[in-house]
Specification:
Elements: E1 4-10, E2 14-20, E3 46-51, H1 55-65, E4 70-75, H2 78-87, E5 92-96, H3 104-117, E6 125-129, H4 134-143, E7 147-150, H5 155-166, H6 187-190, H7 193-213, H8 216-230, H9 236-251, H10 254-274
Parallel strand pairs: 3-4, 3-5, 5-6, 6-7
Antiparallel strand pairs: 1-2
């Protein structure tokens, strides 16, 4: 083979053998495909303040935006959101309309007053609401919002609205497909189903306890949360029941409040007995 063998020895130390051979190049069985460079996101970085008292809604928004270079900070009510907005530099705020302590309308007005009083430019604010009536959109505009999104909105709706109000151009998007009678098959959203169902169970228990105390204001708030979040997971019947719970609690109709809570509990029992994997 045209090679060489060599040996060196040292008394009392031992011997070292070495060899070299000439080999033909091995045949190429299959070249590995050339790695394609990962394209960096073309979206400009944004810093966003997300204000919503319901955890499920915040989780959905973050899941929708997770693959974009946008940093999201969170606040749990309007007052907390206003203070956060004043302390940090944000490109955009997403405000839920109905929240405890301070609602979204009041928070938007407070931010606009702070901007005006300090000679600051107007920052985009988007309203997130479970209501789609024309008066709700009008109220949002009057309060200082730049856009209004009705829950459940899609990932595409959210991203396009954000880009529009901050002035990002040159984007296209197509609506998400929703299978009949089922939730959106977005793996990021499906991963949140156990969390959503756990939150739903907690809300139903909270509403039941509040009914016994005669606290229909809390029941109304619970209904509003359920109404806004159910549709994100394709549970239109849950959203409808949440809306009924909100309306009957506002009207003081305790009998129908109890009936609606039974309907929600039955839904939860049926879903959990089948497992979220079948959704």
């Amino acid at each position: 083979m045209g090679g060489e063998i060599a040996v060196t020895s040292e008394p009392g130390e031992g011997s070292v053998f070495s060899f070299s051979i000439r080999l033909l190049p091995a045949p190429v069985v299959g070249a590995a495909p050339e790695a394609k460079p990962v394209e960096p996101s073309q979206e400009p970085p944004l810093r966003i303040l997300l204000v919503d008292d319901y955890e499920a809604n915040r989780l959905v928004v973050k899941a929708f935006l997770k693959n974009l270079p946008w940093k999201i900070d969170e606040a749990l009510d309007g007052a907390e959101g206003v203070e956060a907005f004043k302390k940090s530099k944000y490109d955009l705020a997403l405000l839920d309309v109905q929240m405890p302590v301070m609602d979204g309308y009041s928070a938007a007005r407070a931010i606009r007053a702070w901007e005006g009083g300090n000679g600051l430019p107007r920052h985009p604010i988007i309203a997130l609401s479970a209501h789609a009536f024309s008066e709700d959109i009008r109220d949002a505009t009057t309060a200082g919002f730049d856009a209004h999104l009705t829950k459940p909105f899609t990932k595409e709706n959210l991203i396009e609205t954000i880009k529009r109000v901050v002035g990002i151009t040159g984007f296209t998007s197509s609506p998400a497909a929703q299978p009949p009678g089922g939730p959106l098959r977005d793996p990021d959203i499906e991963a949140l189903l156990p969390k959503f169902l756990g939150n739903l169970e907690t809300l139903i228990a909270e509403a039941c306890a509040s009914v016994e105390k005669g606290d229909l204001e809390t029941v109304m708030i619970v209904g509003h949360k359920i109404k806004g979040a159910g549709g994100f997971f394709g549970f239109d019947s849950v959203s409808e029941l949440g809306g009924t719970l909100e309306a009957t609690a506002r009207e003081g109709d305790i009998a129908n409040v109890r009936t609606t809570l039974l309907g929600l509990a039955s839904f939860l029992k049926e879903i959990t007995s089948h497992g979220t994997g079948s959704l």
